[in-house]
Amino acid sequence: MKIGILGGTGPQGRGLARRFAAAGHDVLIGSRAAERGELIGAEDAQADDTNRITGGSNADVAAAAELVIVAVPYAGHAALLSALATELVGKIVVDCVNPLGFDQHGPFPLRVAAGSAAEEAQQLLPDSTVIAAFHHVSAVLLDDPTVDHFADDVLVLGEDRDGVSVVCDLAAAIPGARGIYAGRLRNAGQVEALTANLIAINRRYKTHAGLAITGLT
Ligand SMILES: NC(=O)c1ccc[n+]([C@@H]2O[C@H](COP(=O)([O-])OP(=O)(O)OC[C@H]3O[C@@H](n4cnc5c(N)ncnc54)[C@H](OP(=O)(O)O)[C@@H]3O)[C@@H](O)[C@H]2O)c1
Predict the structure, then answer these.
(1) Residue 95 φ/ψ, nearest 5 degrees
(2) Where does 2-205 sit in CATH, by number?
């Protein structure tokens, strides 16, 4: 698949890009600045030795990709998606954005009028299939080439069964990880918010905590 990553120049986008390229996908790193996307894409392609990572502007990447991942901070989420609605028509848009705030007591979930970043994305992109996924996989571990096994389950939420299925398969590009259907988009808010708990765990126990679901074979 040709996968575009909006905001792919950040740790989460780069980490996912590395894993998707290693699994045989072509990855396009998107940036607000085309040259930064090109530079990071070229750097990562060289580091990974796959020649499957390139980059450009978010708009070019959104237009060229078959499936697009949104990996920008929540502060830039709505403006970016509104601007790219035309490029994203008919595509699966995977939202991994966690709307979080940080204060002296640590991380906390932000209230989102639409219910969640994913629901906001679906409102802004009525002609795209929005799927929520990849909220809890650590960017640090994704980007670490010495990490070759993940015990994580990737919660995948959406309204469209085929879209959910595509993204569950994509999650399996992360070695050892499973994609698990976890409900409709109206349940994305607590999935995004749970990241605040994981960050609190990381800070207390100096780790990169992930999520695993018991009871599934
Ligand atoms: N880090 C993690 O471990 C992790 C794990 C799971 C999910 N997430 C989620 O993934 C998303 C990205 O995380 P990250 O740590 O990679 O974030 P980040 O480094 O803060 O941002 C990623 C990229 O987004 C672009 N960007 C920054 N501000 C923007 C704005 N206002 N509008 C549009 N683009 C903007 C920047 O790229 P350009 O300057 O090149 O445009 C930046 O490199 C977040 O929503 C986060 O909640 C992160």
Answers:
(1) -105, 120
(2) 3.40.50.720
